[in-house]
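User: Let's play a game. I give you a shape written as tokens, and you guess the letters that built it. Ready? Here's round one.
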């Protein structure tokens, strides 16, 4: 890895490390909602299973998901939209590195900080309060880590596309609200997607990137469906990451061309 990506990741890490009060508040909030969600799903399971998830798997699903909220960070708008609105995007475009990669490396640094704080602490709380599912295979830990990284990349690409709409809309709050709602409902944040009708679950998995944000890493972590399912969901994440990053390049090229035509 060259020095620039590493420097950008370190900068992203350090920047979010300065928000100590927000980090503590986020940890507390995620932990409280973790207890609420956990008790609800365990009550639904009533000692049995829900959509193929056992009790320990449901517990891990909830607490790992609560930790991943800040890591994937689907609800925050990238600064790209504000840069476009203010006109500062011109400075970004003049830099030697493509803004797409600049924002990506910085966001990976942010995710790294969240992984050490807002991910690990709620997961520890869940482990102490309930006990978590212990994977049967050692490879699951590495596959889960890979799946989480892919989830961050997919989430970033989606947020970057939302930010790029500012070249046409200027105010992206409407698009951002729709993205936040759709990504939350379709990613498995509120409940496992397997609870939904089979046809709707298939549409979400094959037609949208939303399950790659949370549902995929959670299924990998609890070993749902065996190795075949794990391989399929990680493969799907790879495909969505590549497709969405390519889409970012194409849309960004059209946005820059529009900016030049308008005299920006």
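Assistant: Ready! My guess for every position:
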């Amino acid at each position: 890895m060259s020095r620039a990506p590493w420097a950008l990741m370190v900068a992203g890490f350090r920047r979010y490390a300065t928000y100590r009060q927000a980090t503590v508040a986020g940890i507390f909030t995620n932990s409280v909602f973790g207890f609420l969600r956990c008790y609800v799903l365990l009550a639904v399971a009533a000692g049995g299973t829900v959509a193929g998830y056992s009790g320990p798997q449901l517990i891990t699903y909830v607490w790992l998901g609560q930790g991943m909220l800040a890591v994937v960070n689907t609800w925050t708008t990238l600064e790209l939209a504000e840069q476009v609105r203010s006109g500062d995007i011109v400075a970004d475009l003049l830099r030697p590195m493509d803004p797409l990669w600049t924002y990506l490396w910085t966001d990976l640094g942010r995710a790294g900080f969240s992984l050490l704080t807002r991910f690990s602490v709620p997961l520890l709380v869940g482990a102490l309060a309930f006990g978590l599912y212990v994977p049967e295979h050692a490879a699951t830990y590495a596959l889960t880590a890979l799946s989480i990284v892919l989830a961050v990349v997919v989430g970033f690409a989606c947020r970057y596309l939302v930010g790029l709409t500012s070249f046409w809309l200027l105010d992206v709050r409407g698009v951002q609200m729709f993205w936040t709602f759709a990504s939350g409902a379709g990613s498995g944040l509120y409940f496992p997607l397997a609870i939904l009708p089979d046809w709707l679950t298939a549409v979400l998995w094959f037609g949208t990137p939303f399950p790659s944000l949370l549902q995929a890493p959670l299924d990998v972590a609890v070993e749902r469906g065996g190795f075949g399912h794990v391989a399929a969901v990680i493969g799907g994440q790879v495909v969505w990451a590549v497709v969405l990053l390519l889409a970012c390049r194409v849309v960004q090229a059209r946005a820059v061309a529009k900016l030049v035509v308008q005299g920006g």
